[in-house]
Design goal:
- Pfam families: CN_hydrolase.
- The protein is of the alpha/beta class.
- The chain has a single domain, classed as Nitrilase/N-carbamoyl-D-aminoacid amidohydrolase (4-Layer Sandwich), CATH 3.60.110.
- Helix content is 24%, strand content 28%.
- The protein contains six helices and 18 strands.
- Strands 1, 2, 3, 4, 5, 6, 7 and 18 form an eight-stranded mixed β-sheet that branches. The chain has a six-stranded mixed β-sheet with strand order 10-11-12-13-16-17, covered by helices on one side.
- The longest helix has 19 residues.
- It starts with 5 loop residues before the first strand and ends in a 12-residue tail after the last helix.
- 46% of the residues are buried.
Length: 287
């Protein structure tokens, strides 16, 4: 499950001298063993906390990357019940950290499918938001074939929430290709996009999509990713990154398990939005 472990150093814990807040994005290469994945996630989150992160995010399906797609159906949990959700709640509380739980397989209306759900916990361990992935990935390219609709039931609600760090918008992986989702969130300060991009599509589009979403929304984008070779033979792209509202990559991890660390500065973001008020200049629907 592990490749090369990497972690960025930081100058001071918690708030930086300029009043910014430290955030972390976790990269890992999950396998079929849920308990093993949770242990690895805990280790990496502990590292993030030791570097002063007050807000951290795990990648899509950090808890299971099964030998076959149907394995996540067997591992599904009811909302607010189960060991994966208990882990997220207890870890957030133990570390005194807000935690974006990548995605978790939750029960759906179909016995043969799950909801791919991004869960957010505050620093007291309370679940404060749930987003069910709306756009389901499908690809047929050469020998590669993916069809998430076969095991995942699509969500239908856009989710944004207030937090001590600003207004947060939630998305998962393939959602990055649909900019209208982010416009539907309204004005958000931080966008989360936990992902498990394939090596093929990631090499071609990953960074471009993340930086585009940051620039067009003048928002920070936190993109924790699965990265590396998995027990099931799949290769995910990795390149976990945090991007600022100007499209600058603040930190990244190309491959392997590790922690990406950066500071978000709301004053800097506000100055950019004042200098380039693109969000106020939208006129398409008023013509």
């Amino acid at each position: 499950m592990l490749d090369n472990l990497a972690i960025r150093t930081a100058s001071a814990p918690g708030k930086a001298h300029d009043g910014s807040i430290r955030i972390a994005a976790i990269q890992m290469a999950a396998g079929p063993n849920v308990s093993g994945n949770l242990e690895e996630a805990a280790r990496l989150l502990d590292m993030a906390a030791s570097q002063g992160a007050k807000l951290a995010a795990l990648p899509e399906y950090f808890c299971i990357m099964g030998m076959q797609d149907a394995d996540k159906v067997a591992a599904r949990e009811q909302d607010n019940h189960g060991p994966i959700q208990e882990f997220l709640s207890q870890t957030a509380k133990r570390l005194g950290m807000w935690l974006v739980g990548g995605s978790v397989p939750l029960a759906s209306s179909r016995p043969d499918k799950v909801r791919n759900s991004c869960l957010v916990y505050d620093d007291k361990g309370k679940q404060v938001a749930r987003y069910d992935k709306i756009h389901l990935f499908g690809l047929e390219l050469g020998n590669e074939r993916y069809a998430e609709e076969e095991t995942i039931e699509a969500g239908c609600g856009v989710v944004a929430l207030e937090s001590p760090f600003g207004r947060i918008g939630l998305s998962i992986c393939y959602d990055l290709r649909f900019p209208e989702l982010y416009r539907s969130m309204g004005k958000v300060d931080i966008i989360f996009a936990p992902a498990a991009f394939t090596a093929t599509t990631g090499k071609a589009h990953w960074e471009t999509l993340i930086r585009a979403r940051a620039i067009e929304n003048l928002a920070y984008v936190v993109a924790p990713a699965q990265g590396g070779y998995h027990v099931n033979g799949r290769e995910t792209h990795g390149d976990t990154m945090i991007v600022d509202p100007w499209g600058v990559v603040l930190d990244r991890l190309p491959r392997g398990s590790g922690v990406v660390i950066a500071n978000i500065n709301r004053e800097y973001q506000a100055s950019l939005r004042n200098s380039l008020p693109a969000l106020k200049h939208r006129t398409l629907y008023h013509c």
